[in-house]
Design a protein that fits this description.
Elements: H1 2-5, E1 7-9, E2 12-13, E3 15-18, H2 27-34, E4 38-41, E5 45-49, H3 54-58, E6 65-68, H4 71-76, H5 79-82, E7 86-89, H6 92-100, E8 104-108, H7 114-124, E9 128-131, E10 134-135, E11 147-150, E12 153-159, E13 172-175, H8 178-184, E14 191-193, H9 196-204
Parallel strand pairs: 3-4, 3-13, 6-7, 6-9, 7-8, 9-11, 10-12, 13-14
Antiparallel strand pairs: 1-2, 5-12
Helix pairs in contact: 8-9
Amino acid sequence: LGRNFGTQAAGTRMNVWVTRDEPADGPMSTAVREAGLTAVWEPVLTRRVVSDAADEIGQLGFDDWLVLTSVYAVENVAGDAAQIPCVAVVGGVSQRIAEGRGFRVELVSSDGGAKRLFEELRHKVTSGVICYPRSSLARPPIPWRGVDIVSPVLYETNTRAYDDSVVDRVDIAAVASPSAVEAIARVDIPMASIGPTTTAAIRALGVE
């Protein structure tokens, strides 16, 4: 965003709607400001941890897999148990935080998306157990031959009533998940997507 939209006119900075569930000084808002843009904080989702998946992760062995498809999941799974299995994540930020917690990251999605991550796991993993702690809105993956998939709900995701006048105060909406796209539906402003899964959700609405 900073490279493409940093300056609209002399002395004017682009206003970016931060739709992600985070504090006003959270990582997306901070990244927007560091890029030379103005962050307009108005989340459209709320998340609530309902389990750390300790029981399910604790059953995994050294050659089993733990799949974490968001930073939120990386931060909220049971830390000690998650240090045992192989870990798969969707991007560099998740990898850094996971390794900081002592997790053994063995696979990072090649395109930063959950769909590609599971495609790569299908080619890489032919036996054992995959544990996928997920949002209440995410669908459990379809298992494949030789692999058992355990998919506990780690956190609930719900839409949040937001001030819709935000649309008139921003130039672009930054969205970080398909559920955020669904929460704001069609808005008459450009959207910036965090990755291919979210982009697909935007395009499903007929929006680029």
